[in-house]
């Protein structure tokens, strides 16, 4: 009789643990459009511009769960760069805020998913409260980029080739903020 009671308790615990493991925040990242779609259990829905891995740096695709959340992380690999509101989902890859908002909407990172710091803070709070399921799909090389040629708009595949060597080169270089500048105003960068 005790064996049956223990078995029933184990099965009930398994169902409770499974129900609690359901993530209420859905994060869908489309590398082709450089957009993140976020929805949660409250019915809120957002679409934000992102920057993923630029040419030579890939962003991993697949389905993930966050394994670490850090309000402020400094990248040891890339010159102690600030990564506010970091949501780590695979190895050293994270979704995090950036001060380089001019690059959002096109591949510009070393593989992480960058987004506006205010949006990163909002996402961080949702994931902290409710958990998340992260899905990354698409290919940044397959997106079409409009380029003005004379008075006509011409679309071409946005990939680096000999004919198009600067397809992913940033339009304007911005100086990265210092740590002190970021700490004084993290959302305003």
Q: Report the major sheet.
A: 5 strands, mixed
Unreliable spans are: 12-20, 142-173
In what range is the share of β-strand residues?
A: 25-35%
Tally of alpha and pi helices = 3
Describe what this molecule looks like in 3D.
With 189 residues, the protein is of the alpha+beta class. It has a single domain, classed as L,D-transpeptidase catalytic domain-like (Beta Barrel), CATH 2.40.440. Helix content is 21%, strand content 34%. The protein has three helices and eleven strands. The protein has a five-stranded mixed beta sheet with strand order 3-2-1-9-4, with helices on one face. Strands 5-6-7-8 form a four-stranded mixed beta sheet. A two-stranded antiparallel sheet has the order 10-11. The chain is globular. The N and C termini lie far apart (64 Å).
């Amino acid at each position: 009789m005790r064996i049956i009671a223990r078995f029933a308790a184990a099965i009930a615990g398994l169902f409770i643990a499974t129900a609690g493991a359901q993530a209420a925040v859905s994060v869908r990242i489309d590398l082709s459009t450089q957009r993140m779609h976020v929805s949660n259990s409250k019915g809120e829905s957002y679409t934000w511009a992102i920057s993923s891995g630029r040419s030579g740096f890939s962003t991993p695709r697949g389905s993930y769960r966050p394994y670490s959340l850090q309000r402020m992380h400094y990248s040891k690999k890339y010159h102690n760069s600030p990564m506010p509101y970091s949501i780590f989902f695979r190895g050293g890859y994270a979704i995090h805020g950036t001060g380089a908002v001019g690059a959002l909407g096109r591949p510009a990172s070393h593989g992480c998913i960058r987004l506006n710091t205010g949006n990163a803070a909002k996402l961080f709070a949702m994931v902290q409260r409710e958990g998340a399921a992260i899905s990354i799909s698409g290919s940044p090389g397959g997106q079409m980029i409009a380029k003005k040629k004379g008075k006509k708009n011409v679309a071409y595949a946005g990939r680096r080739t000999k004919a198009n060597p600067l397809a992913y080169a940033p339009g304007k270089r911005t100086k990265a903020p210092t740590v002190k500048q970021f700490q004084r105003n993290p959302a305003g960068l």
